[in-house]
Amino acid sequence: MASTSIKTPGIAAAIGEVFRQNKIPCLVLNAVVMLLVGSYYLVPDVAEVWNQVGEFKLKWSFAFSSASTVFAAVLLPTLVQGMMGTLPAEGRGMRVLLLSAFWGYRGMEIDLFYRFQGWLFGTGNDARTLAIKVAVDQFLMSPIWFVPTVLIAMRWADAGGSWSRTRASLDRDFWLRVCPTVMVTNWLVWIPTLALVYSLPSALQFPLFSVVMCFFILIMTLLARKAEA
Fold first, then answer.
1. C-alpha radius of gyration, the chain, whole number
2. What is the pTM of this model?
3. CA torsion angle 109 114 120 123 (round to 10)
4. Nearest to 148 by CA among 114, 190, 104, 186
5. Chain segment 50-69, per-residue pLDDT in tens
6. Residues 32, 192: contact at Cβ < 8 Å?
7. Where, by residue number, does the polypeptide cross the bilayer (predicted)?
8. Is 8 within 8 Å of 176 (Cβ atoms)?
9. What are the residue ranges spanned by the domains of the chain?
């Protein structure tokens, strides 16, 4: 009898497919970021609004970074996914609660990381400083920590907070196919975006990050589910 098994695409094929499917939305998102940053430097009235946001962020510090990340990475994407009919059928409330706990922490962690980079490499927006910050962010922290932990948190939330079910899902395919394919999308969005984020004054870097994160989470969620299919 002929075999009817379905072969899992190789990593090269999976990455190529990810690039083809996501290059346009990622380019559009990068263009939006360019417009936002350009508005700060070129339009005084818009710059004043940005400065007010920056002052608000400085006032509320980590409370702002936590709350804004939960809104951008959990609440708004959940609303959009609900409208699109792509939310898991069961455990939606628990999923939102678990993801809110994770992203509330992650927002503060990233805020602290931005501050650390500013302390370590300076707050200038010259090409050398921007290149170093982007390289550390995207080629050190993202592959080692940021991207894998986000994907694990998503599986943890989908498993209703069960660590045993989450650990069982972290198989060879997760590490060798899902993580690398999501990493490609991460680079498509965040390498150019972070060059712009780090060019802003320190108080405005996290607010812009939050705006981009909202759209990126939607892209990454859909990608992760497709990669697991």
1. 19
2. 0.84
3. -160
4. 186
5. 999 999 999 999 999 999 99
6. no
7. 24-43, 63-84, 174-198, 204-224
8. no
9. 17-228
